[in-house]
Amino acid sequence: MTMRLISPLLATCVAALALTLGSALVPAAASADRINAPSHDAGLGFHTIRFRTEDGDVYSLHALTLTFDYWVGRTYGLMLHGEAYFPMRGAQPGSGEDYRGSIRRDYEQHWGIDGSMMFGMHHELAENLHLYTGAGVHLQVFRINDAAFSTIEAVTMGIGGVARLRYDFHRHAHVGGLVAAAVDPLDLIKHRNRVVVLFPITLAVSVGTHF
Amino acid sequence: MAYSMRLSPFFRRLLPALSLLALMACDKSGVHDLGRANDTLSTCGAVTSTWVRSLDEETEIFVLGAANPGTRADSGCFVRALVNQDSSVAMEAGSFQVNATGAGSTQILATYRFLFQPDRGPLQREGARRFDQDPPITQTIQLGRDAARLTLSVDGEARTLTGLPEVIRRLDPTTQGGAEDIFRLVNIMFYMSQTRVQGFGATGMTMYVTPSTFNGIVAGTYRVAVQGGLRIGTDLTYTGLRDLTDIQMDGNQHTMVDLGGNGPTSEMLLFTLDHPDQPDPILYTIFYDDLDVINGAAGGGEYTVDSDGNMFVLDWMLAQDVHIRNVLPVGE
Fold it and tell me: Which of A125, B63, B86, B319 has its CA 20 to 30 A from that of A81?
């Protein structure tokens, strides 16, 4: 599954590089149309989750993540943020099996999907430097499963936000970095020992295009 | 005037996607501990004996890690199961230890529960669940003998049990009624094995897209594998499984259902019943090709069985009427 998700990322990177090389002599001049054009970003980063369940157990998961971001608007606009993440390490100190170790090694299935649909604002900080901030609905799902161990899975919903910095190094291309966070108080699965609250945080760098 | 809700095309496309999303993660037994093993039961080994009694709506079964309990100091595995005739099961597993007078205690490490909930859809059912007991549950027991039968008291509740070989002796595989009695008995063991499969009988089964193998109480193993998608295929594969001392299961049962829990079953399971008086065991095969699953449970069709060389057709409703009262009456 990791390979299938890396292919779109590589394709986006290749497209961005091709655009850069193809019009390398064109300066990244500021333009009202380009600044507010829809933009697409793909990135790589670090994703961490902490959550508590009804039984009072506290879990933490640390993951590698692939991010996808979309913006359309002018001063105000629509922001979409999505992630496919893969927990690598986890811990559940002080309860259960008192687990602390490598999820990548111990579990065959370990993946998650995270997404937010937000109302956002665009701030022009300087020429070719932009800040996008947004807040809205957040939804995430993860599953950690193995033939030998019981499943840990949840589908949660709450409020999420993103702050993304974008630097235009080319008329149609940019690089960026983002911080995303959320608070999910709702566990959508009606199961025993439900998630009471879940906090995901993401730090990522990205490359993208705008037209 | 009555209004009818008509969903827009958008919502008609959205609802299946949301249903699939819900099914992606539906182990109703909860968020489990990291590192929690799927199967904590250790096989007792060859030195075991199985004892049973009939109750009004249940069959009570004990598997003890002793060949001749109640006659001397003993210790070993301890499994107790209450199998309701509708296939609901409550089970506990651990160990026991008694002195020469038969007095002692048990240490229960895990309890299991499966509730038969045909009135609920697969998404709403609880499914099979395991409860790890930390610290273990301790019970006082007293073992003794009443001729060939075992007297067993657990926390002061006394009972007299009959050995499983005696029950097998009373079976007649050559008649329709006898074939039905054998069907009921082997399904009791079948349901006991399913109770240890976390999430069994509900959408929590999707966790077995990574197939898991479980230990038999007395011997053997069984494997649970699920292929996901819009139609869900489940394979239960038994290899020399003995949850009861004198009955062995082999073979595979395959089920293919849609998201509503409807579809056919196929393949077969072979049961070998060790007869106490005959050198050859009773061989009993259940063919699942003519059975239909409705709403996640047997709901139509029939079972074709080979009862020690005699072919019979059994109604599907027999699977929800499992007991041994015909060969071991209540109170005996």
Answer: A125
